[in-house]
Write a structure and sequence with these properties.
By secondary structure, the chain is mostly loops. The protein has helices spanning 2-11, 26-29, 178-183, 316-320, 323-332, 336-341, 347-361, 377-380, 422-425, 564-567, 571-580, and strands spanning 13-15, 50-52, 73-75, 96-98, 119-121, 142-144, 165-167, 189-191, 212-214, 235-237, 258-260, 280-282, 303-305, 363-365, 386-388, 409-411, 433-435, 457-459, 481-483, 504-506, 527-529, 551-553. The two termini are 45 Å apart.
Length: 585
């Protein structure tokens, strides 16, 4: 603790999260005065600017917090606070305040004096209202108050004209006033799902920058025609409401990629809405008896969900089958002239739509587009965390991909990649999931895995030559899932036995003849797939993985040492049988 406090004097940042603290250390309130000895270089000390106290058991934040007058970031999330001190308003530099996941019943009105506040998260508390004084925080751009008991929003929030993100999901709101909506012209994301809203304000049409609108699970009965003004809208969620009709104006939202209308009371889908260039359309659990043939022109659709409708004009196999087949059927019902006008959505348009959707979801999906190279939109998209480029013809990763430093999941399954892209992967410092299965991948260098030390999921299945050089799995200490199907392996790579966090290990469809007893040391293993190999016997030590091992797949092996009656009883019976074979100590 002393070391952390002393370090904070020079860095201006103090992280005391996950320390089982029941109270804030008194040294923190003193702005770290008195930390260290006489030999401290006091002239190099800086004021505390960032204080992280998340994931503790703190019940009280004292008024002494006013001593930290230079504080910019304060994170008190996941504690046991029931209130905030009035002194929170005496932090003139405070820009980010996170008090989510506490037991707070009231936000003090003094919050309005925190004039620099930009981001405020008070979600997952027990609030019944937000103070009207919050409207004095004129710089506020990101407000999150989800999962509380708030019945209405104070009209003074209209003064927060810079608001760009508002999340009030899971409250008791019955209305969002026209005054508020018309004042928030900078909004890009609005989430008011799981409330009791009776309608959508007509003023919604003034939100020309709105990208994501989530109003699912409310009591909304109609969509105002003014929605035509939301021309930046990319995602619109209205599932679980009482909507019976869709306004024809919806067809003018040219950037809309996801439209979710599941579990409403729709009786038809308007022809005008067939002009949309959607990727996902969810119409499940409505009262649709048919679909307009013009829907066949929506060739950009990757997913059309229709289950739970009394569709009498379509065979059930079409409704539940692949979307392209349904679209072809609908097109066949168009007159010949109309059908010839149907232009297949270009690859360029689909990439553009996927890029738009990634703005809020941070996920970019470009699978199955017959791409031979990764389009530049990938590294031009800010903060993408998940990138799916599977089922293409990509041969290499461009160096520009190195700039995607937020990337956590990279899916490159079923491409034409031949060389291990170590130099690019090394720059992706946040990467935790890498799927390179079924590529013609040549051998991975012995130090290849050093490029991705934070990996938790790795799939190299179907790359038969990739492990010839014996790349060291010991460079992947955080690995939790490893898939090595169809690799022509004749033995289990020995350093896999040292992966102590491994939960899933898939070695199916190989040529393994035996299993090392050292597998018993991977005590975190939950699934082990050894199916379709040449294994004739299992080491009794494998029985020591009971009870953590939940699934042991052995079918397709010439096992002679275990009776068929035992195998048929499943994992627990097999592990018990093996354990009973261990020699008594």
């Amino acid at each position: 603790m002393d070391r952390l406090l002393k370090s904070a004097r020079s860095s201006g940042s103090l992280n005391l999260s996950n320390r089982s603290l029941s109270e804030v250390p008194v040294e923190v309130y003193r702005n770290l005065d008195g930390i260290g000895g006489d030999d401290d270089k006091w002239w190099e000390a800086v004021e505390l600017q960032k204080l992280i106290l998340a994931h503790n058991s703190i019940e009280l934040l004292k008024e002494d917090i006013r001593n930290l007058s230079c504080l910019v970031v304060l994170n008190l999330s996941h504690n046991s606070l029931s209130q905030l001190p009035a002194a929170i308003g005496e932090l003139p530099e405070l820009k980010m305040l996170d008090v989510s996941h506490n037991l707070i019943v009231r936000i003090p009105e003094e919050i309005g004096s925190a004039a620099s506040l930009v981001k405020f998260d008070c979600s997952n508390n027990q609030l019944t209202e937000l103070p009207s004084e919050l409207g004095r925080c004129l710089a506020l751009s990101d407000l999150k108050g989800s999962n509380n008991l708030i019945a209405s929003l104070p009209e003074d929030l209209a003064k927060c004209s810079k608001l760009s993100k508002l999340d009030m999901e899971g409250n008791k709101l019955t209305v969002i006033s026209e005054n508020l909506i018309s004042s928030w012209t900078m909004l890009t994301e609005l989430n008011a799902a799981k409330n009791m809203l009776n309608g959508i304000p007509v003023g919604i049409g003034g939100l020309s920058r709105l990208i994501r609108l989530d109003l699912h699970q409310n009591r909304i009965s109609s969509i105002p025609s003014s929605i035509i003004g939301c021309h930046s809208l990319a995602e619109f969620y209205l599932g679980n409401n009482n909507i019976s009709t869709i306004p024809v104006e919806i067809g003018e939202l040219s950037r809309l990629g996801t439209f979710d209308l599941h579990s409403n009371q729709l009786k038809d889908y308007p022809v005008e809405a067939c002009k949309l260039s959607l990727l996902v359309l969810n119409l499940s659990n409505n009262s649709l008896s048919g679909l307009p043939p013009e829907m066949g022109k929506m060739t950009s659709l990757r997913k059309l969900l229709l289950s739970g409708n009394p569709l009498r004009t379509l065979r059930s196999s079409l409704v539940t089958g692949p979307t392209p087949a349904l679209l072809r059927f609908l097109r066949s019902r168009l007159s010949q002239g109309e059908d010839s006008e149907t232009a297949t959505t270009s690859k360029k348009d689909i990439i553009a739509m996927a890029t738009r959707l990634s703005i809020s979801s941070k996920e970019l999906s470009m699978g199955g587009l017959e791409l031979s190279a990764i389009p530049s939109q990938v590294w031009e998209s800010e903060e993408v965390i998940r990138l799916d480029l599977s089922k293409n013809s990509i041969q290499e990763l461009p160096v520009e991909l190195s700039s995607c430093v937020s990337l956590q999941t990279l899916i490159l399954s079923k491409n034409q990649i031949k060389d291990w892209p170590g130099s690019v992967l090394k720059s992706l410092s946040s990467l935790s999931c890498l799927k390179l299965d079924y590529n013609p991948l040549r051998q991975i260098p012995s130090n290849g895995f050093e490029a991705v030390p934070k990996l938790q999921i790795l799939d190299l299945s179907g790359n038969e030559a990739s492990l010839l050089d014996g790349p060291s799995f010991s460079s992947l200490p955080n690995l939790q899932e490893l898939y090595l199907r169809k690799m022509r392996l004749t033995k289990v790579p020995s350093d896999i036995l040292g992966l102590h966090q491994l939960r899933i290990l898939d070695l199916s469809q190989n040529s393994l003849q035996s299993i090392p007893e050292g597998l018993k040391n991977i005590t975190s293993l939950v699934e082990l797939d050894l199916s379709n190999n040449n294994i004739s016997s299992l080491p009794p030590e494998l029985g020591l993985l009971e009870p953590s091992l939940q699934a042991l797949r052995l079918d397709g092996n010439p096992l002679r040492s275990i009776r068929r009656t035992v195998l048929d009883k499943g994992t627990k019976a097999v592990l018990k049988y093996l354990k009973d074979k261990l020699p008594e100590e």
